[in-house]
Amino acid sequence: MPARTLLPRRRPRAVALALALAVLLAGCGGTDAPEAPRSAPRTVTLVAQSTSEGDVLTALYAVLLEQAGYRVEVADPAPREEYLAALRAGRAQLAPDYVFALAETLRGEGTAGTAPGAGRAGAVPAAAPEAALAELEGLARDAGLAVLAPARAEDVRSFAVTRAFATRHRLRTLSDLARSRQPVALAADTECATRADCAEGLREVYDVRLRRIVPVGIDGGDTLEQLRDGAVQLAQVSSTDGRLAERDGDVVVLADDRDLQPSQQVVPVADAAWLADQPTVRTVLADLAPVLTTEALRGLDAEVDSGRASARETAETWLGEQGLL
Prior knowledge:
Blueprint: H1 11-27, E1 42-46, H2 52-67, E2 70-74, H3 80-89, E3 94-98, H4 99-106, H5 129-142, E4 145-147, E5 157-162, H6 163-169, H7 174-180, E6 184-188, H8 199-206, E7 210-215, H9 223-228, E8 234-238, E9 251-254, E10 266-271, H10 272-276, H11 279-288, H12 294-305, H13 311-321
Parallel strand pairs: 1-2, 6-7, 6-8
Antiparallel strand pairs: 3-10, 4-10, 5-8, 5-9
């Protein structure tokens, strides 16, 4: 049998080293070597209503989405019906909204304005938040939209008293006010007298003794001034109004313990087809939902309304404090 010729044992290592050196030299070569193609950044266009709160919410969404690798554009503010049309047409992908107000519009009952909603026809307790969200999800699905996890924050019609009045009569809720049998004057918008979720509801659902209603304009802009000046004892307010955070908390919002108001939790709404391709968005905004409370949103609105910081600066600072950046 002829003897076998044995190959040197070091040869495979030498070949490997030579190949590695060639690859290294190619990587360090001139400008002729083509670069590996880079994937284009994912883009999302945000849109909201023309309010400082809309600015705050889109800023929160934008900062978190940019951190997740999205390129974010913010469209000009628009009324609800207009930005819903933009979502359906693919001109925008994501917007902040409110559960009941959005459901009203999708049912064809709401308006395109910036108010949270027009209220119900009868003064009865509202549906539970879970039921309201389930209804909204169905309406959104039929419209080619999708809703994401709602935040704890709720921008809802509320009623406030001064802290001194609350302390004197031991008030924490609207039921406490009714039990106190204190007749009160109410400062509210001009529609309140006939709304089921305002004066009618206070009387019928709570049995609050309203001795008179002081109308102060369609948006109720100076109800807090009326309250603080002592002209009235009860004021209609928005639960996230930044002015409630002023003056060391001298105003107290009474809890709606009989659910007169429908759920107005902040909820992101998206183009359903786009969202199906972007599951990361659900995860990113789900992290925001449990920490964005009514009190937190009120403070963010106050920071922006005061001019101390922009919506973007306010969002970045607060998200960092929450450990989300």
